[in-house]
Structures are given as structure tokens and as C-alpha cells.
């Protein structure tokens, strides 16, 4: 026999204003909206005001006439956010004060205004409480976003003179790529992220964060003392005892290099901090920084064959370079500050390798020089690492010594003219190994050319590599280069290498410079990719800065502007044919921004405007001059 029912449970959800009780929390919240006089929804037709959203919606359906559609602000489910706009957008913690501590520290305006930063633009929202309901004509389907405008936000961030501006821009760009891939449902890329970068629990960060905010010296520590230990990146990394020997070797070689520098330059810091080095260079830090590098930076400088990269066997210079580059990732903030202390001595160690001395003795065959190729890769990565510093001495050394020395070594190995050797072996594994050997050499040459062009713009100095040297083969597609196994490579590469390459970079660029070939009608269009277009605009960028600094601008300005107009016409055709690649391809995503900067340099040079320090025909070791130039002309060109 069932027990007799007792009294009905009391309604435990009680309004704090009028003491009415409700059986569910949702009922209580709807009731409490009546007492909240600030939350008013206004009918656009009769201007009646309502506290409850459901009542307002029913009223508007009956009241609004004339074929107009009312857009109600999207209500976000779940817990209402309390963070300020900036902290919410950057996915950072906020103390909810006015202003919050983070905004106060960074000197930015602290606003509690928008209820859904990720939504489509909605009516004006004030204090997360006031909503107006706009009337949108039913026939109006135009976007609120300006179409056809070239975004130069990446350029502004990449040239930001704040410490680590370039690396912050690249890392943020990689995070935005991840978000886009999730939105577009790229399951293969999502699998790749889970497989290769399990440490990416905190992908969003702010370009405006100060150095002290991003890399807080107080967080430097070991184990549980680290302020970032709540994100246990290293717990998911396999333990490799073999890395202990590699780490010890790194510390020993850097210490020996420091001693060598001290003998030649007595004013160098006299003490090599071995204790700090032991904190920075650990197997766990090494593994996590390598993963961070491949997640945040590899896509923008894809010169290393990721599937076969092995931290236990790769050359020491390349291992150090990848570690230091990876330490600049937002997920490695606990390593970034102390690792920065070793960047100069690491630079010296890499550029003291034998390949740079041998380069002075003449050209060599690059086919069997595996360790030497890795040293060149390390040197190129270190140039990008050191480009983050504001130290004028370091930047001047990069401009006057390191870039020319690296270009000379690449030239001595004849990489600028390197062509694929062909698949002479029968087995799939051998063909894959031959491909890797060829491709890393081709990519080293091509990216040396493009980074040289980029740094020439940064330093306002002539590039070291000339276009006529670039007669080697072009890189293959990223999907082939990223093939994880020999069988995957075989399946992808069959069509890629079935025919000889259609053109060299000089012949391709000459088509843009020709006054007889319209842009969209360039004869090699069917063989052109967005990556080819990035190389072409870097070549035009080199030509533009060389012309300006050589005082030849008046004679070449029309040809360069005509070439850039053709490039833009062909680019618009290419991106329509391969839109997916632009979401995944690093600097290719911003090739149009490079085009804008190149055109701005040519047009401002033609006008004779010297109001910006950058337009003076002399080198600049500060990135601030270029950054100010972009800021000055971003709305004028």
C-alpha cells in the first residue's frame, strides 16, 4: 500500500522584492524582470515599454505593420557574463571592478557595454540592461560590414613596436585560424590540433596586453610555484629520458658560446646564469615549446618537415631555435621571460656554425648536407625571433651581419637554383625521403627570399636576395608537405609531380611587369596558387623598396603600379577558386595586406611626401617608423 501523500512541497523560489514564490527558477527570473525598471524593451511602432521579453515579442507581432521585420537582440543562454568587454573578448579573467585591474594596468578604457561580443551587430545596448528594437526593412539584406575593404590589422600588429609584436600577431592569427576552422567544420584540422597540440587550452589572448601582462616576471618558477601551473601542459607530454642529454648539451653549448663571446668582447655580461638555464631548458619545457611552435608559428614559416621532426635527433641549432620560437607562444608565458635571456647567445651559437665559414669559400652541393640545411633553418627562425626585440643593437646586428651572412650561406649551397632530383628509387619510402630532401631545400630558398623581403621593409634597407636568383623550383602544396606517412604522400603526390613545373618565380613576376598581358589573362593562371601569389607580391615588394632606395622610383613607378594592379586582379580570381586554403595558410591569408603596403610605398614615394620618417631613404633599426607609416596612410591609400 502506498504511503499517504503529505503536504505539497513549498514553493522555494521567492522574489526578494515582493516575496511571491514560484516553483521554478525560470518563473522567478521572468517575474523579477517586472521589478527591474532599467530592463525595458521598447516597441518601435507605439513605443510601449515592456519588462518581459516574451510579452514584448507577442505585442510587437500584433503592433508592427508595413512589411517590416523587428530584430530582437539575441539572448545568450547560460550564466550572464560579468566581465568587461575587453576581458570577455580576449577570454581573460576580470575582477569586475570599474575600471578592472587588467584594463587599468594596460591603460585601456574599461567598458561594460556589450552583451554578446560574438554576435551579429545588434541594437544599442547599455549596461547589459537596455534594449531598443530597430526596424529593418524586409527588402534590406545588405551586410553591416563594409565589403571589399582590405584589412591591414595584421600588418599593424605585426609591425607593432611593442616587444614581441610580430610573434604576438602571428600567434593571434593562428588562434583566429583555429576558430575559423571550427566554425567551418574542418574535422581534419581539428584532429590535427588534438593530435599535435594538446596544450592549447588557452588559445585567445590580446594584442594590446602589455609585456608585463603577457610575460609576468613574477610567474617564473618551477612546478607548482608557476602561476600557470593550473594549465598542466606538460602532464600530457610523453616523458623522454633521452631529452635529458639534449638539454644538458644545449646548456653546455650556450655556456661555451658565452665564454667565447666574453673573450672577444669583454664588455659582455660576465656571468652565464647556469641556474636559470637549468630552469628554462628542461625536457618538459622543451617538449611543450616545440608543440607550441608547431601550433602557433610553423604555419607562417613552414620550412621544417613537421611529420619527421624529432627532438631527439634533430641538429642542436635547429632544436634551440624551435624552442626559443615556441617559448614566445601565449601558452608558454612561464618560459618566455627567462628564455629571452638566452636569445642573443643562441644567435651567436647558431651563426658560429661551420656552414657560415664554409660559405665564404665558394659554392657547395646541397644534396647531402642534412645538418647544414637544418642550421640554415635555425638561423632563419632566429632572425624572426630576434625581430621581436626593440633593442637597437640587436636589430642593427641582424641587419648588418646576420641577414647578409645567412643569404650568403644559402647562395653558396646553390639553394636559390635548387630543383627536384626526381624519384629515382622504386620503393614508396625512398620516394618520400627524396621528396623531403628536395622540398626542405626548396622551401629554405623561397622563405629566405620572402623573409629577406619582409625584413628589408622592416629595416627600410635594400633586400639581399635579388629576384633573378630565384630560378629554382616552387614549393609543393601544404597538404603534400604535411603528409604523415609515405603512403599518404604517395596518394597525394601523384598528380602534383606528374608534369614539370609551369614557371619559375622570375618568369611569373615578369608577366605582371609586362605592359602587354592583362592581369586575369596571365597565361599560367591555371597553374597558379595563392602561395605563388604571395611569392610574387613579395618579389614586387622587393622591387619597390629597391627602386625607392636606389632613387629610381620616378622611372619605375608606373611599371610597378601596373604590375600591382594586375596582381590584384589575378588574386581576386585565385581566392575565389581556393577559399579554403586562405583560412589555413599563414602569411598567405595576408598577401593582400602586403599588396596594400607595397602600393602605399610606391604611391607615397611618387607624391614626394616625406612627413613620415620611414620615407627617408636611409635604414631604420626601429620598427616604430614602419608602424607609424602604416598608421598614417591606412585610410589614405
Automatic annotation (TrEMBL):
Its main location: nucleus. InterPro entries: VerF-like, XnlR_reg_dom, Zn2-C6_fun-type_DNA-bd_sf, Zn2Cys6_DnaBD, Znf_C2H2_sf, Znf_C2H2_type. This is C2H2 finger domain protein. SUPFAM superfamilies: beta-beta-alpha zinc fingers (SSF57667), Zn2/Cys6 DNA-binding domain (SSF57701). GO terms for molecular function: DNA-binding transcription factor activity, RNA polymerase II-specific; RNA polymerase II cis-regulatory region sequence-specific DNA binding; zinc ion binding. Residues 13-40 form the C2H2-type domain. Keywords: Metal-binding, Nucleus, Repeat, Zinc, Zinc-finger. It comes from the Eukaryota.
Amino acid at each position: 500500500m502506498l504511503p499517504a501523500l503529505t503536504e505539497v512541497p513549498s514553493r522555494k523560489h521567492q522574489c526578494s522584492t515582493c516575496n511571491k514564490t514560484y516553483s521554478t527558477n525560470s518563473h522567478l527570473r521572468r517575474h523579477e524582470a517586472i521589478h527591474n525598471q532599467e530592463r525595458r524593451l521598447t516597441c518601435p511602432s507605439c513605443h510601449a515599454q515592456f519588462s518581459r521579453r516574451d510579452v514584448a515579442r507577442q505585442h510587437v507581432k500584433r503592433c508592427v505593420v508595413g512589411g517590416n521585420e523587428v530584430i530582437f537582440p539575441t539572448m545568450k543562454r547560460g550564466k550572464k557574463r560579468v566581465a568587461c568587454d575587453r576581458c570577455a573578448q580576449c577570454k581573460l579573467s576580470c575582477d569586475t571592478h570599474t575600471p578592472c585591474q587588467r584594463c587599468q594596468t594596460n591603460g585601456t578604457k574599461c567598458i561594460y557595454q556589450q552583451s554578446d561580443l560574438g554576435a551579429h551587430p545588434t541594437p544599442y545596448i547599455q549596461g547589459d540592461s537596455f534594449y531598443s528594437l530597430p526596424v529593418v526593412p524586409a527588402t534590406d539584406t545588405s551586410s553591416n560590414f563594409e565589403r571589399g575593404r582590405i584589412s591591414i590589422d595584421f600588418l599593424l600588429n605585426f609591425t607593432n613596436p611593442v616587444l614581441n609584436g610580430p610573434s604576438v600577431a602571428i600567434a593571434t592569427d593562428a588562434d583566429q585560424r583555429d576558430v575559423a576552422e571550427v566554425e567551418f567544420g574542418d574535422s581534419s584540422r581539428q584532429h590535427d590540433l588534438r593530435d599535435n597540440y594538446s596544450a592549447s587550452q588557452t588559445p585567445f589572448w590580446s594584442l594590446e596586453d602589455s609585456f608585463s601582462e603577457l610575460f609576468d616576471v613574477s610567474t617564473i618558477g618551477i612546478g607548482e610555484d608557476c602561476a600557470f601551473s593550473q594549465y598542466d601542459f606538460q602532464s600530457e607530454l610523453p616523458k623522454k629520458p633521452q631529452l635529458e642529454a639534449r638539454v644538458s648539451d644545449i646548456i653546455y653549448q650556450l655556456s661555451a658560446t658565452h665564454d667565447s663571446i666574453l673573450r672577444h668582447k669583454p664588455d659582455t655580461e660576465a656571468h652565464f646564469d647556469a641556474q636559470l638555464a637549468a630552469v628554462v631548458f628542461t625536457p618538459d619545457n622543451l617538449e611543450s615549446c616545440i608543440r607550441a611552435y608547431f601550433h602557433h608559428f610553423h604555419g607562417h614559416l613552414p620550412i621544417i618537415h613537421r611529420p619527421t621532426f624529432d627532438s631527439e635527433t634533430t641538429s642542436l641549432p635547429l632544436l634551440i631555435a624551435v624552442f626559443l620560437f615556441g617559448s614566445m607562444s601565449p601558452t608558454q608565458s612561464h618560459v618566455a621571460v627567462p628564455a629571452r635571456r638566452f636569445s642573443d647567445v643562441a644567435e651567436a651559437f647558431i651563426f658560429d656554425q661551420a656552414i657560415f665559414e664554409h660559405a665564404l669559400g665558394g659554392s657547395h652541393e646541397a644534396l647531402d648536407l642534412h645538418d647544414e640545411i637544418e642550421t640554415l633553418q635555425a638561423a632563419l627562425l632566429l632572425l624572426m625571433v630576434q625581430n621581436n626585440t626593440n633593442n637597437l643593437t640587436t636589430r642593427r646586428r641582424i641587419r648588418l651581419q646576420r641577414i647578409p651572412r645567412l643569404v650568403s650561406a644559402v647562395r653558396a649551397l646553390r639553394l636559390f637554383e635548387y630543383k627536384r632530383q626526381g624519384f629515382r628509387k622504386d620503393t614508396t619510402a625512398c620516394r618520400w625521403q627524396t621528396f623531403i630532401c628536395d622540398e626542405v631545400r626548396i622551401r629554405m630558398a623561397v622563405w629566405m627570399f620572402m623573409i629577406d623581403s619582409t625584413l628589408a621593409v622592416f629595416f627600410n634597407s635594400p633586400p639581399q636576395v635579388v629576384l633573378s636568383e630565384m630560378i629554382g623550383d616552387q614549393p609543393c602544396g601544404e597538404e603534400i608537405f604535411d603528409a604523415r606517412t609515405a603512403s599518404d604522400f604517395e596518394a597525394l603526390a601523384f598528380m602534383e609531380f606528374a608534369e614539370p613545373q609551369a614557371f619559375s618565380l622570375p618568369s611569373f613576376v615578369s608577366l605582371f611587369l609586362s605592359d602587354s598581358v592583362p592581369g586575369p589573362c596571365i597565361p599560367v593562371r591555371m597553374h597558379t596558387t595563392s602561395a605563388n601569389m604571395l611569392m610574387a607580391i613579395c618579389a614586387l615588394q622587393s622591387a619597390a623598396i629597391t627602386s625607392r632606395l636606389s632613387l629610381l622610383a620616378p622611372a619605375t613607378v608606373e611599371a610597378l603600379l601596373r604590375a600591382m594592379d594586375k596582381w590584384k586582379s589575378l588574386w581576386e580570381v585565385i581566392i575565389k577558386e581556393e577559399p579554403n586554403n586562405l583560412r589555413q595558410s599563414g602569411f598567405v591569408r595576408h598577401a593582400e595586406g602586403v599588396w596594400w603596403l607595397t602600393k602605399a610605398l610606391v604611391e607615397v614615394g611618387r607624391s614626394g611626401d616625406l612627413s613620415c620618417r620611414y620615407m627617408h631613404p636611409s635604414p631604420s633599426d626601429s620598427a616604430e617608423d614602419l608602424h607609424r607609416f602604416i598608421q598614417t596612410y591606412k585610410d589614405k591609400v
